[in-house]
Automatic annotation (TrEMBL):
SMART domains: CBS (SM00116). This is BON domain-containing protein. Coiled coil: none annotated. It comes from Streptomyces qinglanensis. Residues 1-25 are annotated as: Disordered. Residues 164-229 form the BON domain. It holds the Pfam family BON. Residues 30-86, 111-167 form the CBS domain. InterPro entries: BON_dom (IPR007055), CBS_dom (IPR000644), CBS_dom_sf (IPR046342), Diverse_CBS-Domain (IPR051257), UCP036990_CBS_BON (IPR017080). PANTHER family: CBS DOMAIN-CONTAINING PROTEIN CBSX3, MITOCHONDRIAL (PTHR43080), OS02G0818000 PROTEIN (PTHR43080:SF29). Keywords: CBS domain. The lineage of its organism: Bacteria, Bacillati, Actinomycetota, Actinomycetes, Kitasatosporales.
Length: 229
């Protein structure tokens, strides 16, 4: 007769709780002052806005402040001949043919729609993954009604990795390893360039993967390695 062992949460086994801080959200790092354009904004107005604010893209809003698209520098440039099969934001009737027509188009004609957006409660790591997957430099932040409340950039999401190695090592020890010491034994943590290396003697080696996942979830940790456990 075979038996199957169910993994036990190390915090539950020790009777103590790892005091992990709540993961940082987009609302913690986003910029609240946002430049945007209305759907009727013209080509030159959009260009002036991008240049004045030194940004590469701006959200496009309807009258009630809802985000309906994003217009970027790339949207303002003439499309290459091989892009003829790309469907414009609002159908064939709204397509802007040729550079002359493009310069007479409105934001609604030129924008990419629907916009890729995030909520303020979205975890920073999730926003970073969205940017990477969609190859975007920024994301409009919206409320529950789809209205613009901020913008989050690559620099904003990368700010969570600015914690020093000393700060990370202290956080791993005080917030994770010490509260769980009764379950995982005498584990030590060293940090170099955001990479945490766990070493020492584990009371139960089967719990080490759970500890690794807990440490990896700590904001600012780049990777976790296990050596000599």
């Amino acid at each position: 007769m075979s038996t199957m062992r169910t993994p036990v949460d190390p915090a539950a086994r020790s009777g103590r709780t790892a005091q992990q801080p709540a993961p940082r959200t987009v609302g913690d790092v986003m910029t609240h002052t946002v430049v945007a354009v209305g759907s009727t904004a013209g080509f030159k107005q959009i260009v002036r806005t991008l240049r004045e604010w030194r940004v590469g893209a701006v959200p496009v809003l309807e009258g009630d402040g809802r985000v309906i698209g994003v217009v970027s520098e790339g949207d303002l440039l003439p499309a290459p001949d091989d892009a003829a099969g790309v469907r414009p934001a609002r159908g064939a009737d709204a397509a802007v043919h040729g550079e002359a027509d493009r310069q007479h188009g409105s934001a609604a004609d030129l924008m990419t729609s629907p916009a890729v957006t995030v909520r303020s409660g979205t975890r920073v790591r999730e926003a970073a993954r969205t940017m990477a997957a969609k190859k975007l430099k920024s994301l409009p932040v919206i409320d529950g009604d789809g209205r613009l409340i901020g913008i989050v950039s690559r620099a904003d999401v990368l700010s969570v990795y600015l914690r020093s190695d000393e700060q990370l090592a202290h956080a791993v020890r005080e917030e994770i390893l010490t509260p769980l010491s009764g379950a995982v034994g005498e584990l030590r943590a060293e940090v170099h360039d955001g990479v945490v290396t766990l070493s020492g003697r584990a009371s139960d080696p089967e719990l080490v993967p759970l500890v690794v996942r807990t440490v990896l979830a700590l904001e600012g940790v780049v990777d976790v390695r296990v050596g000599g456990v």
